[in-house]
Description:
alpha+beta; 4 helices; globular; 5 strands; two-stranded antiparallel ribbon
Amino acid sequence: xxxxxxxxxxxxxxxxxxxxxxxxxxxxxxxxxxxxxxxxxxxxxxxxxxxxxxxxxxxxxxxxxxxxxxxxxxxxxxxxx
Length: 81
């Protein structure tokens, strides 16, 4: 959780990171990611991570709270693919 990554253009803090499968999961709540500026920044961040060879998956706080089993299933499938 909250793992710093040094990328070209500066450091990024990943919400959740698995190094071997090069998977990053970002959890986005409306409070911090619901503005137009946050939306733009999130896309730019994803682009930088993908260029650096990472897969980026975004999930909502609602998914974490209300659909944890579905989210776990998705993450398991991604980690084993």
